[in-house]
């Protein structure tokens, strides 16, 4: 997109998505539209280019339909956690744009893998799935691998949020073992998701109030380098530019940009309450144009990391370097088949940012999400974090927004009249990492030496930030915690280097038990009742099929899967008899509509002593 366009430049992060399932299963089932889709239909058996070493990561991916009338579906990619600390947690990540794929986050920031070239992956030692399940969603419809009829793109933020809640309803129905997790929603790391996340959070909280029995445990919001408040963030381009030496105060360039700002402020005053203003976008576009030097690869400031340069008019759109491998990888037929990508998106091919989606998403009738934050802060904690070297959604604008915002009985970080919450130094493994500032349910973190994509630059440091916000304490897990301090004081043990083997076998057994119970829970939710004699007959028939298939296809027994998952040195290869294959085999019994007897009162999930849920634990980095 040309920077001089009146359409806002994509405020996005970089993406890569990869998952896999057997081709025969893809041919037999379209999970997005099938009324009988099961979790096993989305299971990722293998992923092209996976590293030979590192922990095995269980994954699911595919489409979930949200608007049947317009063939709209959202694509997701789910990674199970490697460990459980004190409770089970799920992090949902959405990228911005609007119209930019969340696979930026999955493959270039917080996911367990990174690309070394267009064919090979390496393990990300700072992956956020250490203590949390990760769910990446290409949002809204039409973004990334998600799809919709071209005349049905989203226009407003509430419409987007309502569709996302539909997605979550169906996703939790497929994966009921996660529906009581603590959900740190909207780990939206980048930019325009600063609009998406508050709207989705509001929709979730409203849903919870309507039906408290099925309420989701929304425990917090994280927004990184977010586009939240135009009134403060447009003027901050100039302030930040002077602070970083991009423009000189009182120079001709400064005066030209000040004229752009006056036009911007006039427009915002005459037509208040919008998310974007075309006249205001000219400030950044002209700043990049006025500071252009020459015609080479270093002609322009990188708007996502001002320490770097780029060609003009890209000015950062070619960054980060992993991006050059991303599109070729995600367009490989074997990758799209592994990810259960539908036929339409396979033929079109994956794109990082969809200009048609972004252009349609004008949000003309949507108010900026900053107006939602005060009420959200009454109900859930929120963390805003900023990479110090980002220009497009810079920390100056975020800090100015916080200083002007009123919430929970106070303004900004003022704790008493004239006294502001201190900026507390954050040190990580002997280096100055940034500062933390907190008051009345809001936390702000400025991360030094980082860009628009903090986890891309500082993966382990960003995970420490996440773990602190979620209240992770690894004391019960074992392993080596990171040396992380706030004002010189160590908090909870947050980052593990390796888990003790003694925690592993019991957790794997617990994992198997919970998967079995979750399957029965899904049957129970269906509301169908059958006689015990039918259940017994179905089990016997299923055993006969299993025995015959074992003879004919040389299936390995399920115990082999359990042993392979306990391997500590290398990624265990998927076997035809592994856990999810067993689940797929069982899907043939679904046609019998077998459920547990109505008299069953067994708990759906095992519980810890504190009432929280346990799930799966695996080896660490």
Written overview of the protein:
It is a single chain. The protein has 621 residues and is an alpha/beta fold. It has a domain of 92 residues. It is built from 19 helices and 20 strands. The strands form five sheets. A twelve-stranded mixed sheet has the order 1-2-6-3-7-8-11-18-17-16-19-20, with helices on both faces. Strands 4-5 form a two-stranded antiparallel ribbon. Strands 9-10 form a two-stranded antiparallel ribbon. The longest helix has 22 residues. The N terminus and C terminus are likely disordered.
Task: Give the low-pLDDT segments.
Answer: 1-30, 185-189, 498-509, 518-541, 543-621
Task: Give the fraction of residues assigned to helices.
Answer: 25-40%
Strand segment count = 20
Roughly what fraction of the amino acids lie in strands? 5-15%
**Number of H/I helices:** 19
- Report the mean per-residue pLDDT as an integer: 79
Mind describing the biggest β-sheet? 12 strands, mixed
If strands are numbered along the chain, what order do they take across the biggest sheet? 1-2-6-3-7-8-11-18-17-16-19-20
Backbone CA Rg? 25 Å
Helix/strand structural class: alpha/beta
What would you call the shape? globular
């Amino acid at each position: 997109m040309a920077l001089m366009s009146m359409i806002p430049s994509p405020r996005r992060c970089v993406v890569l998505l990869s998952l896999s399932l057997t081709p025969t299963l893809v041919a037999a089932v379209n999970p997005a539209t099938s009324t009988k889709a099961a979790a096993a239909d989305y299971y990722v058996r293998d992923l092209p280019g996976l590293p030979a070493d590192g922990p095995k990561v269980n994954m699911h991916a595919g489409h979930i339909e949200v608007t049947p009338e317009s063939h709209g579906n959202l694509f997701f990619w789910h990674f199970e956690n490697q460990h459980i600390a004190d409770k089970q947690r799920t992090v949902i990540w959405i990228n911005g744009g609007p119209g930019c794929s969340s696979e930026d986050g999955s493959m270039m920031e917080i996911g367990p893998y990174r690309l070394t070239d267009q064919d090979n992956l390496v393990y990300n030692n700072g992956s956020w799935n250490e203590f949390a399940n990760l769910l990446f969603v290409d949002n809204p419809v039409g973004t990334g691998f998600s799809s919709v009829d071209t005349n049905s793109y989203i226009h407003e933020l509430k419409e987007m949020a309502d569709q996302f809640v539909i997605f979550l309803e169906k996703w939790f129905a497929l994966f009921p073992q996660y529906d009581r997790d603590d959900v740190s929603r909207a780990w939206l790391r980048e930019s325009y998701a600063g609009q998406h996340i508050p709207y989705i959070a509001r929709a979730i909280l409203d849903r919870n109030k309507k039906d408290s029995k099925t309420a989701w445990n929304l425990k917090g919001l994280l927004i990184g380098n977010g586009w939240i408040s135009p009134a403060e963030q447009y003027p901050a381009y100039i302030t930040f530019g002077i602070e970083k030496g991009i423009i000189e105060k009182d120079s001709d360039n400064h005066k030209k940009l000040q004229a752009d700002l006056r036009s911007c402020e006039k427009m915002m005053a005459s037509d208040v309450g919008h998310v974007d203003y075309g006249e205001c976008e000219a400030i950044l576009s002209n700043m990049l144009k006025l500071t252009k030097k020459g015609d080479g690869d270093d002609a322009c400031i990188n708007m996502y990391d001002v320490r770097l340069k780029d060609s003009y008019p890209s000015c950062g759109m070619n960054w980060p370097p992993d991006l050059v491998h991303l599109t070729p990888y995600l367009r490989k037929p074997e990758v799209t088949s592994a990810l259960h990508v539908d036929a339409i998106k396979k033929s079109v091919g994956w794109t990082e940012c969809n200009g048609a989606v972004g252009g349609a998403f004008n949000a003309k009738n949507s108010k900026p999400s900053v107006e939602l934050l005060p009420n959200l802060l009454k109900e859930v904690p929120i963390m805003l974090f900023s990479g110090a070297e980002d220009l497009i959604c810079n920390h100056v604008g975020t800090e100015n927004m916080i200083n002007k915002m009123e919430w929970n009985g106070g303004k900004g970080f003022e704790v008493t009249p004239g006294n502001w919450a201190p900026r507390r130094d954050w040190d990580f493994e002997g280096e100055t990492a940034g500062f933390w500032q907190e008051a009345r349910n809001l936390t702000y973190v400025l991360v030094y030496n980082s860009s628009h994509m903090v986890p891309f630059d500082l993966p382990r440091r960003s995970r420490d930030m996440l773990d602190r916000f979620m209240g992770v304490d690894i004391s019960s897990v074992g392993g080596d915690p990171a040396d992380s301090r706030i004002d010189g004081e160590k908090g909870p043990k947050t980052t593990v280097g390796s888990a003790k083997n003694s925690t592993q076998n019991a957790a794997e057994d617990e994992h198997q038990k919970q998967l079995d119970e979750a399957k029965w829970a899904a049957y129970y939710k269906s509301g169908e009742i059958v006689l015990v004699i039918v259940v017994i007959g179905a089990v016997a028939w299923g055993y006969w099929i299993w025995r015959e298939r074992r003879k004919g296809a040389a299936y390995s027994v399920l115990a082999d899967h359990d042993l392979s998952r306990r391997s500590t040195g290398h990624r265990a290869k998927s076997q035809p008899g592994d856990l999810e294959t067993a689940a797929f085999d069982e899907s043939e019994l679904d046609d019998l509509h077998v459920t547990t007897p109505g008299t069953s009162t067994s708990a759906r999930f095992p519980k810890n002593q504190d009432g929280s849920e346990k799930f799966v634990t695996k080896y660490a980095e």
